[in-house]
Amino acid sequence: MRKICIINQKGGVGKTTTAVNIASGLSREGRKVLLVDVDPQGNIAHSLATQKSLNLYHFLSGKCSYVDCVTSLGTNLDLMHSDESLTKIESDFATSRNPTQLFSKQFSDVAGYDYLIFDCAPSLGLLNQNVMLFCEEAIIPVTTHYLPMTGLSGILEAIQDINGHFGHNLKVTHIVPTLHDGRNKTNKNMLAKLEEDYPEITTHPIRVNAKLAEAPASGKSIFAYDKRSRGAKDYGDLVKTLIKSEKPKSKPLEPISMRVQRMMAHVELED
Ligand SMILES: Nc1ncnc2c1ncn2[C@@H]1O[C@H](COP(=O)(O)OP(=O)(O)O)[C@@H](O)[C@H]1O
Ligand SMILES: [Mg+2]
Questions:
Q1: How far is the CA of 192 from the centre of ligand 2 (A)?
Q2: What does the pLDDT look like over 117-128, one tens digit per residue?
Q3: Which end of the chain is more exposed for a tag (fewer CB within 10 A), N or C?
Q4: Mean pLDDT across the stretch 28-39?
């Protein structure tokens, strides 16, 4: 099970758009995905309708099991949503002996998915530290605009600090340039800088595309809203990149009786 957080302490850089569309794209490729909204603003529940009253807050505070607060959004895709109640978790942290390990503790029981995708709030607070300490991979969306790019080192340092302090190994696997306008000079320069500074992990840019901004209002991913759009092409490519880096599933061990039979057949042939 891959555990991936979509994180950046800046708002409006395309975290939610990226989380929703890679979760949907992966599910369309047959992967079982749980999308977890870790933003108390609860953006995802507004765009992908869910009526469940129980949510991530209830799960984290031990009031329900994950099955009770997960909504199916279609084949292979489930959502654990959030709302403002998630801010109450900060007071649970205050009384907890291990305030950074709550996610790791609660999510350790979650099973049956190929991917857990966490859409983070724009902050570096305890909630996000929890998510970072549970996840193994981080995807950082960053717009190819000047100010958000200058904030990139902040999130990279925060990840380094968390890893160093807790002996964790959260890897930044992809920096995703978002809201990219190839005709704009600053955007072009910023993309070139990203590609120069982080050549191995910078992905193809996600271009500005009105369809990506329209899709949430109709409660759909970009693939359901307009599969021929540039947004669908760009997020489709990102999904392919993620699939390419999947570890091969280990083959189940052959039962011992079969192995013995095969060995015996071999021995007889050699006689
Ligand atoms: N590639 C894109 N083209 C056009 N609009 C986009 C694109 N990516 C995101 N948006 C829009 O930009 C706004 C911020 O994106 P969002 O994913 O909510 O960012 P974050 O979660 O980082 O705050 C939203 O209105 C979203 O619809
Ligand atoms: Mg968001």
A1: 25
A2: 999 999 999 999
A3: C
A4: 97
